[in-house]
């Protein structure tokens, strides 16, 4: 049985013990809930893939307590160290060359010689990582291809009994996955847009390549870029200003009068950060078979709005084939 109970020190200790025993623990981060396992334990990591029914080629992010813990696994340069120290703890994942013999399960990087590292800011994630004192591999705590969970109940809804313990930390403040930044090449590249914006990164790094939309003919650099990744069960129609009577409508700003069968606003005040935080919960709430689809209002393609649009395009692509 999955349990979601108030979190105190005893529960954190139990969670750390479970991780040490090769078990799974779902925990909140400031972005989305993660499904964690000891990143050094092959069987434990395999259990993540099994619980998520996730394709094995998709590598996982390794969560650690701080930058010095990250140095055990990733080969930092002065540059990547400066980026880490500025943005960690926080919603930025750094892809770095993996240190040989660092002890990580090979399943974690799915065969790549790089590792994705992140120091989450959520206090419960911090407490768990400090208590466990080891690397925690954690993808979002949902079945592969489903929307990422931003509340504890989303985790149990999606994964059911596959996860033994869910630490309930309330709603995720950011509500959208971390930005994935590849620092392995000569030029930094964004592999996934997220809560830390390209503008924020460019202020520190200069020009950054946007590798988040792979060219059709080339293999994706980050397997999470595969189009079928973020998808409600009913079709999504983006940039919609005219919802139809059989559609649900995810508005942006004041929805005004419309024909939709149901309407929720991603941000009544028209704030892209609020829209990001509410995106997955809103899609989830509207993802019901009684609707022909979800019409989503145009979202400004600035700052974190770019990540929102990226997720929405992927959700559209999932129904295109
Ligand atoms: O906000 C987040 O990042 C959440 C929370 C739980 O930390 N985690 C998350 O993990 O979204 P996941 O597994 O759903 O997404 C990991 C992303 C995928 O796009 C994956 O392909 C990419 O990171 N990734 C992981 N390791 C990589 C590597 N070595 N090289 C390139 N991309 C990598
Ligand atoms: Mg995910």
What would a concise description of this structure say?
With about 325 residues, this protein is an alpha/beta fold. Helix content is about 30%, strand content about 20%.
Question: Which regions have little confidence, pLDDT < 50, spanning 5+ residues?
Answer: 215-220
* N- and C-termini, Cα separation: 36 Å
N-to-C order of helices and strands:
EHEEHEHHEHEHEHEEEHEEEEHEH
The residue fraction in helices comes out at 25-40%
**What percentage of amino acids are in beta strands?**
15-25%
Derived from helix and strand composition plus strand pairing, the structural class reads alpha/beta
Provide the residue-averaged pLDDT. Answer: 89
**Main beta sheet strand tally, sense and closure:** 11 strands, mixed
Number of strands: 15
Shape: globular
Number of helices: 10
Mind telling me the CATH class of the largest domain? Alpha Beta
Q: Under the CATH scheme, which architecture of the largest domain would be assigned?
A: Alpha-Beta Complex
Can you lay out the helices and strands and say which pair or pack?
Layout: E1 3-5, H1 9-20, E2 25-28, E3 33-38, H2 42-52, E4 61-63, H3 67-70, H4 78-87, E5 92-97, H5 106-109, E6 114-118, H6 123-132, E7 136-137, H7 152-159, E8 165-167, E9 179-182, E10 189-192, H8 198-205, E11 209-210, E12 236-237, E13 247-251, E14 262-265, H9 272-286, E15 293-296, H10 305-317
This protein binds threonylcarbamoyladenylate and magnesium ion (MG).
Residues 29, 31-32, 34, 58-61, 93, 95, 109, 112, 114-116, 118, 120, 138-140, 177-178, 180, 191-192, 222-224 line the site of threonylcarbamoyladenylate.
């Amino acid at each position: 049985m999955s349990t979601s109970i108030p979190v105190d020190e005893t529960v954190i200790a139990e969670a750390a013990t479970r991780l040490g025993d090769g078990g799974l623990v779902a925990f909140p981060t400031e972005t989305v809930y993660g499904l964690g396992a000891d990143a050094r334990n092959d069987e434990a990591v395999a259990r993540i893939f099994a619980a998520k029914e996730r394709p094995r080629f998709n590598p996982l992010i390794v969560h650690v307590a701080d930058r010095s813990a990250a140095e055990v696994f990733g080969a930092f340069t002065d540059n990547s160290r400066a980026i880490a120290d500025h943005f960690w703890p926080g919603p930025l994942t750094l892809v770095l060359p993996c240190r040989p013999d660092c002890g990580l399960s090979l399943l974690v990087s799915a065969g790549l010689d790089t590792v994705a590292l992140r120091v989450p800011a959520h206090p419960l994630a911090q407490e768990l990582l400090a208590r466990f004192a080891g690397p925690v591999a954690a993808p979002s705590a949902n079945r592969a291809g489903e929307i990422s969970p931003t509340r504890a109940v989303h985790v149990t809804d999606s994964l059911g009994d596959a996860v033994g313990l869910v630490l309930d930390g309330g709603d995720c403040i950011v509500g959208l996955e971390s930005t994935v930044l590849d620092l392995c090449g000569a030029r930094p590249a964004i592999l996934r847009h997220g809560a830390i914006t390209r503008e924020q990164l460019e202020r520190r790094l200069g020009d950054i390549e946007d590798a988040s939309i792979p060219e059709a003919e080339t293999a994706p650099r980050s397997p999470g870029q595969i189009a079928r990744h973020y998808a409600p069960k009913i079709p999504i129609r983006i940039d919609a200003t005219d919802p139809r009577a059989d559609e649900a409508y995810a508005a942006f700003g004041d929805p005004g009068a419309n024909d939709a069968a149901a309407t929720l606003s991603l941000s009544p005040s028209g704030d892209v950060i609020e829209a990001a935080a509410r995106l997955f919960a809103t899609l989830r709430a509207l993802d019901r078979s009684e609707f022909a689809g979800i019409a989503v209002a145009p979202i400004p393609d600035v700052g974190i709005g770019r990540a929102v649009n990226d997720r929405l395009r992927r959700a559209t692509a999932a129904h295109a084939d």
